[in-house]
Each structure stands twice: as structure tokens, then as C-alpha cells.
Amino acid sequence: MDTNRQLEIYRWLCSRSISALSGEELLAGFCERLERGRIPLVRSAVAFASLDPLVEALGYRWTRKEGAPGQEAFARPLAPGAYGEDWVNSPFNALLNSRRTVLRRRLDTDGVEQEFPIFEDLRALGATDYIALKTMFKRPGAGQGMMSSWATDQPGGFTDAQIQTLHVLMPGLQLAFEAMALSNGIETLLGTYLGRDVSRRVLAGAIERGVAHALDAVLWASDLAGFTRLTDTQPQEQVIDLLNAYAERVADTIEGAGGEVLKFTGDGMIAFFDRERHVSAPARALQAATRALAETRTLSERRAAQGLPVSRLRVALHSGLLFYGNIGSRSRLDFTVVGPAANEATRLCEMCKSVDRDLVVSAAFHDAAPGLQEQLVGLGRYALRGVARAQRLYTLDDL
Predict the structure, then answer these.
(1) Using an 8 Å Cβ cutoff, are 351 and 384 in contact?
(2) Confidence bin at 159 (pLDDT 50/70/90)
(3) 347 phi and psi, to 5 degrees?
(4) Are residues 218 and 153 in the same domain?
(5) With contact defined as beta carbons under 8 Å apart, do 293 and 315 qualify?
(6) Over the chain, what is the mean pLDDT?
(7) Whether residue 270 sits in one domain with residue 255
């Protein structure tokens, strides 16, 4: 490939590093330009580490016949190091765990397919040569690095000049994929640690301290009964496992009903259902509470049968006006909710123990949900700690 064409491809890669081009479009465009530059490719693949807690790596594959069909997500193993055979027996794994940056194999040699199973598939495509390259990312947030592979069906395999061209162009391809990985990583991390709604607001520029807006919402406050005793009597590993098991079911239920988990506070959870976004927010919240209580009871039965520590979920629902925004120091902010309604929600959760109920809802919630009032039964009038006025509390009769 002549220098002018290399520069053309490099400029294209650099322009795509600042655009919103998808990974499959990026890889397909690069491979098609290599082919036009007389580097015939039968298959190519790119993979890089992900900062998603559920996904270890993202990959893209291109073939001359099918193009680039889409993104592949490779789940994190359930146990550390418990990878599947496809990865363990792959050239990428062998290269990643070595000090080398290049792995090349001629595929027109008998017996080479026995080294890695993928070679048999490549030979079926007519591939004669294979080269895998390892490049590392330097910036935090972009993952650890990029692995790429290139297979040709050219008689005699890649020429030295073609391999040199791949090495020359690889920094440009790395730059484009690193930019995409960095963008995806930021969105994933913010969504993981801040929640979907907060991450969208922060990415949109809501980062100024002290600026908050009013939010009419249903508040959710929950915790686990007897958690302090568990931390004193159970091994740390089992306590963390218990927290994760219960939190997963509760958070998934809240988000599945259209709610937003705002923060975890030890064994507690604060969430809200935006009434401006969902007119049916009270019904959604009550449905989520009912389901979360049922699922955690089933979880407790399963864990008890395995001899693992268990707990009981306690939920409080409240309705009111919140102030939602950045609070903190100049260099360390928390995007959270404040206001009397937020305080009252946590006090309501404390009342679950006092009235011996796993679900307590406030008078404000009761009044804001006329379609649900027949399902709610009164528990009496109670004074909440730190709240000036006593109020009536309610629950579901069949819980």
C-alpha cells in the first residue's frame, strides 16, 4: 500500500475518533479501505476490556462475506478466573498473557489448526495467514487495551509490506477505538455509580454545586432487619454476599417499575419514582414494593436452606416535593435529594420495626394515590422521630 493511501486511511481514522461512529462501522470501514489498498482480508476481529460490572469485554468481528454484524458482549465470569473454553483456547488469550505484542501463524501449513480451534474455522474460509496484535491504552476509563486479529486468503499469506502497513495504521485504529471505549466507559461508570437519571443529568452538564430543582416524586426507603447483628456475628464475606443478593433483587425490581435507585446506605436503599415522568408513580412504587418483598422472602428461604445468613426487607413509601441536585464541597459533590420529604421517608422506614410490618406507607402517599386507597389499611396515628406532626400510617393488608 502506498504512502498516500496510508495517510488517507489514517486521516479517516482520526476523523472517526471524534465522531459517533459505532464499533462495527469503524471496523467495517477500516477493513474495506485495507482491501481497496490491496491488503485482502477474509476476517478481522477487535476486542477491548469493558468497565461494565457485568461485561468484561466488547468485541467486533468483520468478514468479507457478512461485513460487521454488530457488537459482541462477553460477560464477566461468575467466579474469578472461571473463563469459558472459547476464550481460554483463543489466540487473544495466549497473546494477552504473554509479553509479546504480535502472534502470527501461517494457516496454509498442515496441523496448525490444532494449536487454536479458531484456525480450523479460518482455514474453512480459505485463510492462509493470521496475525494478532496487542496494543495497550494509556488513559484511565478506556479499558486496558485492544486486541485485534487479521486473516488473509492471499496465496502465500501476508507480505512483509502488508504487515508493516498494519503496524503503521494500528495507532490510528487504536485511537478511534480508544475514544469510543472512553466514551462508553464514562457513560457506563456514571450509570453504575450514580444511576441512569443522574448520569444523564451529569453528562448533560448538571455539575454546578448548590443548583437543585424541585421534583414531585414517590420516595422509597428500605433496609434489612437485624443487619447490625449480622455484621457482628457473620464473616465479612457472607455479609457482603447477603447485601449483594438482596440489593440486586430490590434494585432490579425498582428499576423495572420505572424507579431510580439514588443511593445505597449500608443495608439501606433510597430510590424515587418521578411523578412528572410517570403519572402512575404511586402504583408503580407499590407494585415494586410488593414484588421486592415477595422476591426477597423467596431468597431468604433459599439461603436458609443452604445454611447462609438471611434477613427481612423493610420498605417505606412516601410522597412529596424533593430538591434534587449537587450538594457537597467544591471538589466532592453528591447528586442527591434533600428536603422534609426525604427525611420523613427514612423515619417511616424505621417505623416498620415499631409496627411490626414489612411495608409502611405514609398518609401523603395514601392521599396521592386515590386508585390504591382500597388496598391500603390504616395502622394508626404515630409520631415520627424528628418530624413535628404525627401522621397516620398504612400498609397492605395481605402482607
Answers:
(1) yes
(2) very high
(3) -70, -35
(4) no
(5) yes
(6) 87
(7) yes
Cα three-residue angle 207-209-215, rounded to 5 degrees: 80
Sign of CA dihedral 31, 33, 39, 40: positive
Long-range contacts of 394-399 (CB under 8 A, 24+ apart): 394/360, 394/361, 394/362, 394/363, 394/365, 394/366, 395/355, 395/357, 395/359, 395/360, 395/361, 396/286, 396/290, 396/359, 399/290, 399/293, 399/357, 399/358, 399/359
Establish how many alpha carbons lie within 13 A of residue 134's alpha carbon, considering only the half-sphere containing its beta carbon: 16
Q: Which of 70, 60, 48 minimizes the C-alpha distance to 182?
A: 48
Mean per-residue pLDDT, 273-281: 88
Q: Phi/psi at 222 (nearest 5 deg)?
A: -140, 160
DSSP string over 280-319? THHHHHHHHHHHHHHHHHHHHHHHHHTT-----EEEEEEE
| pLDDT at 234 (0 to 100) | 87
d(CA 350, CA 149): 57
Residue entry with cell 465522531:
19
Which domain range does residue 169 map to? 3-193
pLDDT confidence of residue 243? 92
Cell of 276: 412528572
**Boundary-marking domain end, from 193, 213, 242:** 193
pLDDT tier, 49 (very low <50, low <70, confident <90, very high otherwise): confident
Residue 229 has a pLDDT of 87
User: For residues 61 and 70, what is the distance between their CA atoms, to the nearest angstrom?
Assistant: 8
pLDDT at 142: 46
Kindly report the CATH number assigned to the domain that includes residue 81.
Answer: 3.30.450.40
Nine cell digits for residue 26:
469503524
Q: What is the CATH number of the domain that holds 334?
A: 3.30.70.1230
From the list 269, 271, 268, 278, the residue with the least C-alpha distance to 255 is 271
- pLDDT-derived band of residue 113, with 50, 70 and 90 as boundaries? low
Mean pLDDT of 97-113: 86
DSSP state for residue 388 in the 8-state scheme: S
Q: At which of 143, 163, 193 does a domain end? A: 193
**Residue 144: which pLDDT band, with cuts at 50, 70 and 90?**
low
> Which helix (H) or strand (E) segment is 230 a member of?
helix 227-233
